[in-house]
Structure formats: structure tokens, C-alpha cells
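Re: duplicated header lines in exported C-alpha cells

Our pipeline writes sequence and C-alpha cells for each protein into one text file. With two proteins the header for the second block appears twice in some exports. Here is an export where it did not happen, for reference. First protein block:
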Amino acid sequence: MNTDVKFLLVDDLPENLLSLEALLQRDELMLLKARSGDEALELLLQHDVALALIDVQMPGLNGFELAELMRGNERTRRVPIIFVTAGTHTAERRFQGYEAGAVDFIQKPIEPDILRSKAEIFAELYRQRKMISEQRDLLEAQTRALQLADKRKNEFIAVLVHELRNPLAALNGGLKLLSRKPEPAKAEQIQSLMHSQIDHIIRLVDDLLDVSRITQGKLTLAKSEFDLREAVYTAVEMTRQTVDEKGHTVTLSVPEQPCMVFADKVRLTQCVANLLNNAAKYTPNRGLIEVGLELSSNTYRMSVTDNGLGLTPEGSSAIFKMFEQIDEHRDHARGGLGIGLALVKQLMQLHGGDVSVWSNGPGLGSVFTLELPVAGQS
């Protein structure tokens, strides 16, 4: 039963409350009953009321006094009040009622059709106010989301410009040095550094293209049947230079038997390599990185465990969002744009799988897990 609209009935006589209840009762309406002003105030603290029907003559707090107290409280000051009165009132008495906050008077004996008609008007007004309030809250939430997205976009553009400018400046400097015809050994060293910068630019552009293709629904998977262990081996080799530069020790644990899947080998290798690169970047020198592959139920699990910087619960939920980076990790990002893990998540979801992370907290390392259905199909 939908009882989103509530009316408050206040009368010191039980028979009058029963009479009002009988006239107004319907499925979509909840009727709250109070036999005194004090009881009414308690109910108003607990419930959001669309209309209050209040008897004027009551012992203790009378109807006008109750209305004045309601108008003095922020929670109840906008509740429409209809006074129910047993006799006629002078113009002065009516003015007192309106001044206390009444929107109307109803005379006893009550005309059922008039009461129902007025009650329905206030019920509908309440529904409309509630709908407008919900729409306002939704618009405010959407506005905040757009402002945050705009902020992240601006931050991303700033980082992208910085990350592209650095290798381009290095390439320009390298060309100038080569134009001076240095010794062969020096020229070879400069060319090696230039190739490294070009590789960095290519990786940035490839990631941006992949994000764009996924966003537009244009990225397709080139699926084939292969041994998943091969993707793990290849990813370890791809990231060996980064790992060795920081002196990390990598251990590998995979099943002895083949782990056959029907999936995009290049993309899954890319996902594992991304997690390994992150583990290398965010683990202090001479750290420990464990790479594992196991079969659990009907799912292959590829995990990358490190003893690095770790994550807070907030960081664990944020890092898979596009352009998101953890403030405490920025010094270790080494050219990251905050799109790598978001790309991994989207690639895994295209395979019918997912990626997750677990960390005991800052400084306590992390465990990233890729889950892939054995069939390799969504």
C-alpha cells in the first residue's frame, strides 16, 4: 500500500476522530490521530504531514495555540492547517485563526464532499511539492556531477599537455644534440633516450584512442582460443624493464596445465601488464611483486600482489574511475593520466569479467585481481 501522503487529525473527542477517519480513509492516505496538542506535536516531529485538521476547542493547547507553535517550528511551519469548529465565529475570531496559520475553516457537522474535495487538493499539492523537491535534488546532484566531471576534464587536459610536452621537449633536445654530430657512443645513447620518449608518447596516444573507442562503442575484441598463461608470461616480459629499474623481485605462480580461453589475447595481456606497471611504480625500490593465475569455480583469476603504497577504502573505490588519481600517489605516477585502470576495467567488462582491488590500508600493499569466465565470453 502506497501511503506517501499523511494527514494529521487532532481532536480531544475519540468519536470526532473516528468520524474524520471514516470520511477521509483511503488506501493511498495515512491518517495520524492525536487527542491533544502535545500528542500532535510529537507526531509532527516523527512524520512529514501534508495537511493538519485541527479542532479549535481542546483542553490544554487549543487549536490556535497548536497552530502558532507549528508556525514557530521550521519543520512544521509550512504544513497547511484547516480548523474544524463546532460553531460560528466572529470575523475577529476567524482573523485570529488565519493569523495563527490556518488556510481554511470547516464547520461541524462536516459536509463529507466538501471535506474530501479540500483534502484531495492539499494531498495533490503535497505530491507536487515532493516531486519538485526530488527533481531539484536530482538537478543539484547532476550539477555537482557535471562540475566534478568538468574539473577532472580540465585537470586531465593539464596533465596530458604536461606529459606530452616533456617527451616532445626531450625529442627536440635530442635532435639538436644529434645535429652537432656527437661521438658514436654518445649518439647511440641519445637515440636510445629518444626512442624511449617516442614509446611513451605512443602509449599515451594508444590509451587515449582506446578510451575514445570504448566510449563510442567502437572497440571490438579480436577473440581467439589461447592459453591464458601465455598472456601472463608476455605481460611479465613487457614490464621487466620497469620492474628491474626499481630492483623489484617478481614471483610467478601459474597452473601446470593449460588454461584455455576464447578471448582477445592482446587486450588481456595489456590488462595484466597495466597492473604490473602500476605495482612497479607504486612500490618502493626492491619491493616484492607476486603474479598469480588460478582457476576458481568457472572463473580464471589473475592477481598482482605488491607490498607498496597501499590504498584507503576511498582510494580503492576511486581508482577505476576515468581520470582519477590518488593525491598521495601522484609523485609516483611517472606520467600516468589516470586512465589505465579505468581502461582495464572496461576491457575486462567487454570480456564478461571484471577487475577489483584489495588493500589493508596505506603502506600495506595491494592485491589487484582480474576475473575472466573460463569460456572467455560474456
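Second protein block, exported in the same file:
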Amino acid sequence: AHGAEVQTVSVSEPSHDAYSSNDLIFDPATKAQPYGLPFCTDYLTAQQSDKPGRVFEFVRSKVLAFKPDYIFLEHPWLWPAVQKMIGDGEIDRQKTKIVYSSHNLESATKKSILLELGLEPGSVDSVTSDIHALEQSLCLAADWVVCVTETDAKALRSIGASRVTVCPNGVAKRSADPELLNQVNKLFYGRKYLIYIGSAYPPNAAGFWELMGPSLAMFNPDEAIALVGGLSDIVDHYAPPEALMSSYVNGQILKKFGKVSDEVLEALIYGASGFILPIMSGGGSNLKTAEAIASGLPIVASPVAMRGYEQFVGLQGLEVAADRSEFVHAALRILRTDQNKQSDKKDELERRSTVYWEHTLTNLQAVVAS
């Protein structure tokens, strides 16, 4: 929109399902995981990115062919490759600006995920220390840092970022297809349902059981919860042992959709009675919170889910609940009261519309214009 020609280059795991010639498929199973720890493929990519081999040569060839004025690093993982190209004299820092587009405090988030798994603290400290050093190196070198919350901005400044701009997470405008909406309604047989959207990211599943579980017996037979996204694939794995005692009841309430098209997601959101956002850990801010706000539906969210969206606390139809009892009762109220599914007050609709990308990325113009 600001007139810049953009090329996106990625190094991706085989589990993703859409690729172009600008994506390199990197199979982490062919390499030893850092410190023998799970959930560290992102850092493994960083370790490999400046070594002779496929990853470095792929990134190098794309950068040299494009001759960019700006290199935006989305997350810090490919910084070692760019750093090597600078050191080799292939990137002229007088002509090419480096922007660190940070979506998370990666070292802190990684530490919380790994410690929740009960892994050996020494190994966890080692890998998170390495990731922190990577983040700090990029903050010190970047001409500009873009992040998603004021809290992240403060933390990034503390490790060396000098010019920081906050661009909150946002969403695209959606509209539901009537035919798909009819199909979704048939899947639920007229049951009212709450929707929870999340990726296969451990805090998404752990938070669900912490605030909604271990038994979902408080839901009536004509009520349900729709789980959408990669979360569906891992939610059972993160269920506490007590959930096994209620597996039949839980199975009747939970309807798992996995990854769906944008069109199906729109229909699922439109047909829902409300959103639940039971997120208890992790960093940055959550796209699913922006999705919930934009929907106009009633929402029950944990305090962590509202990180980066504090200005919406007090919004009509939004309830923030800090413990399981409060959260569950708020969720049931959404299903069992006659409150309007979608807000119709003009000022409330205007507040909710500020989560669309056209508003949240306004500050990005200052970065490109620089």
C-alpha cells in the first residue's frame, strides 16, 4: 500500500501445506535438536542458517537477486544468515536497512513452554540463553524494531533496541457465505457452541484445560465447544490425567475441526454464540483475541489473552476472568442468556473495527518512510 515491492522468503517445516519458490522446506528430523530438547526447531533453523549448506545458500540467493533496500526479519531465526552476508560484504549496510519485526519475546516464551513440560532446567536455561543472545544481537544491529505490544517494546529496548514502533496484531475483514453457514449449522444439529481458535502451540492447549477442564460435564447436551486450527491436534495430548475419567463427556462436548479454509472459519465464527480465550502463558499478543474482538461476538478471556488489547477491557460483551470458576461461569452465561450475539451499538462497533490491519499497521508507514 505504501508503494514498496515486497518479496517474502521463508524456511519452513514440512508440516505446512502451502509453498512457493520462495519457501525452502527444511526437515528438522535430519538434524540434532538443540540440547536434545523438543519445540526448538525454530532455533535449529537459526543454527543452520549461517552454515554452508541449503539454508544459507537459499537465503543468500534470494537476497542477492532481489537487492532489497530493507530486510525485514520476521522473528530472529534467519538473522545469522543475514549477519554472515553483512560480514562477507555481500550486504552493504549503508544501502540496506535491517528491521527486526518481533512478534514475541522468543527466549521468555521458549523458557515457559519447556519448563511446563518438566524438562531438565539446565538444558532449558542453555537454549533460552542462546535465543536471548540472538534476540539481543538483532536488536543492537537493527535500524528499527517493530513489535506488537508496549510491554514487548519496553523489553526490547532494555536489550538494545533504539528505535521501536508498536504495530498491534490485527485481522482481515470477514463475511460469511450463507451456504457454508447452513452446512456448519447442520454439523452442530442446532446446538449452541463456543469457538476457540488456536494453532498447535502448547500454551493454547494447556490454557484450555487449566481454565475449562478437566471435566466439561457442566455443559448441557445441547451445548458444544468448537476447536479450530492446529490446537485440535494437540488438545488431548495436554489433557491432565483427571480428564481421562471424563473422556466420554468431554468427547461429546468438544468438536474438533483442525485446520480449515478461511471461508469455513468465517462460517464457524458467524454461527458461534461467543468466543473463549483461555490463554495462560506465552508472549507477544494473540491474533485469536483480535479475531474475537472483530467478530462482534461475546467473549470470555483470560488476562493473558488481553495482553496488547488492554484498551478493549470494558468492551460490551467482553468479560475477563482470571480463574477456572469465573471463566466457566462466564462461558456458560454466553450460551444460556439472551444477549445479542453481535454488538449493534455504533460506538462499540467502531471500537472493535480498530483491530483490522488497516488500522493496526498505520505506524508501519513511519518505518518504510525512514
